[in-house]
Structure prediction request, 98 residues.
Amino acid sequence: MGFLYLPFVYTFHTRLLSLSAKIAWVTTYVIPVLITCFYFNFDFFLSFLLISSIYSAYEIGYIFNDCELIKKEENPTVRLNEEELSYYEGKKKSNFSF
Prediction:
């Protein structure tokens, strides 16, 4: 269940399921951020680090929404299967700590 720990993987596992969605994500998020970073003369490593840290915050919200808030909704959008939700419940603290 490495998708809970690695940057970008959770988004690709639960949100960006089609090729067109992946292409749209790259063109609307990654490319503009890289252009901005290069404009301000950030090196590639720093640019990747910035993108990873910002997107990790998004993914924490996605994980919380997909695993915690669905418990309180009447008609939740279930993005993870039972095995994945069970794994999350067992390792909840380590998931968010990591």
Notes: The chain is about 65% helix and 0% strand.
